[in-house]
Amino acid sequence: MADRTFLDWPFFEDRHRALAEALEGWCDTNLPVDHSDLDAACRDLVAALGQGGWLTHSGGDNLDVRTLCLIRETLARHDALADFAFAMQGLGMGAVSLFGSDAQREWLERTRAGEAISAFALTEPGSGSDVANTATTAERVEGGYRLTGEKTYISNGGIADLYVMFARTGEAPGAKGLSAFLMPADTEGLSVAERIDVIAPHPLARLRMEGAFLPDEALIGKPGDGFKLAMSVLDVFRPTVGAAALGMARRALDEAMARVTERQVQGAPLASLQLVQGHIADMALKIDAAALLVYRAAWTKDQGAPRVSREAAMAKLYATEAAQEVIDAAVQLHGGDGVRHGEKVEELYREIRALRIYEGASDVQRLVIARSVLG
Ligand SMILES: Cc1cc2nc3c(=O)[nH]c(=O)nc-3n(C[C@H](O)[C@H](O)[C@H](O)COP(=O)(O)OP(=O)(O)OC[C@H]3O[C@@H](n4cnc5c(N)ncnc54)[C@H](O)[C@@H]3O)c2cc1C
């Protein structure tokens, strides 16, 4: 059983502790799910998380970042695909939660109930970290915009009911000339160009827009606000990526603890060897340090800080990098079984990797931190 003493930290209120306990029970009953049909598994997970009431926390007027983090941490510890399903409902609708019009917010009822699946479409074949290089255009036409271009590595691509799409409207060069749009998946001119398979499979796709028309009401916020809006969404959701990594790291430590106490080497459990104890100590230390940074960022945002870019970057950078190290140590302590398909630590080893890349790669987080430190 993963360490839960962190719930006593002053970052949390009793409502958070109650939620964590209730979610633990839900996970024990409902997770893990069978991943063999990925699309079906994700649709079922979104529906189940909606029915369980957990998705009410994924979007809306007052996003509570500590709650988002606790849910992601707990789900990721049980089943990374469940965390993915929850996280994308939040990230996908983040721009609508923070900046959407009343009409756009009507979609939140469906995503929060698990009746519609959302996605966040920023990355392109020619621009990932370098958002300023976005090439997709939104051309102004009578009554709206026509979007043309490609988006790639879009989570939920192919199964989403709606996408928040970022495109160049050209108010200024670079990042200041982007806008965000709410695009239903059945919009004419939008298609799935390719489904993408990755080491830890999730629904993922490259999307193509060929003059896809959106009415004026699809614009989220003001023209030219796209980059600012995307960064505000990431301020909320980057600490939650750290939280997911934390959940995976806690699970890896649990698996390692079970292994080293049971596995006999030289007539005694592995855990009796001091070098092994050293690994366990390092893993526990990294987990606590990651948790402190994650919940510091979440608490700071929940106290009303308008931007928490530095705290969010520190949380995401440290927690994802530390989780990779913790999981790697757990694989090592499992010996040959650690790299065997079907072993939990082998699954975690694949699952953690992309978290150091998406929503701002680790080096991009370092840049954010350095900019803040150097002023
Ligand atoms: C599983 C998965 C899911 C994803 N889901 C989504 C999604 O739902 N929506 C979405 O829009 N995108 C998504 N992405 C895309 C993801 O956000 C990008 O892959 C990421 O931003 C990196 O962009 P890139 O792949 O173009 O790499 P590049 O931008 O080419 O960067 C490659 C590497 O170069 C280094 N680097 C880049 N810029 C700098 C810099 N300024 N300083 C120092 N080093 C730098 C970093 O090490 C980086 O990892 C997903 C990606 C994956 C793998």
Describe the structure using short key phrases.
single chain, 375 residues, alpha+beta, Butyryl-Coa Dehydrogenase, subunit A, domain 1, Butyryl-CoA Dehydrogenase, subunit A, domain 2, Butyryl-CoA Dehydrogenase, subunit A, domain 3, four-stranded mixed sheet, four-stranded antiparallel sheet, 10 strands, binds flavin-adenine dinucleotide
CATH architecture of the largest domain: Up-down Bundle
CATH superfamily of the largest domain: Butyryl-CoA Dehydrogenase, subunit A, domain 3
Name the average pLDDT.
97
CATH class of the largest domain: Mainly Alpha
Compressed to H and E, one letter per element, the order equals HHHHHEEEEEEEEHEEHHHH
Can you list the strand order of the major beta sheet? 1-4-5-8
Number of domains: 3
Largest sheet: 4 strands, mixed
- Give the helix/strand class: alpha+beta
Distinct ligand kinds: flavin-adenine dinucleotide
Spatial separation of the terminal alpha carbons: 43 Å
As residue ranges, the low-confidence spans are none
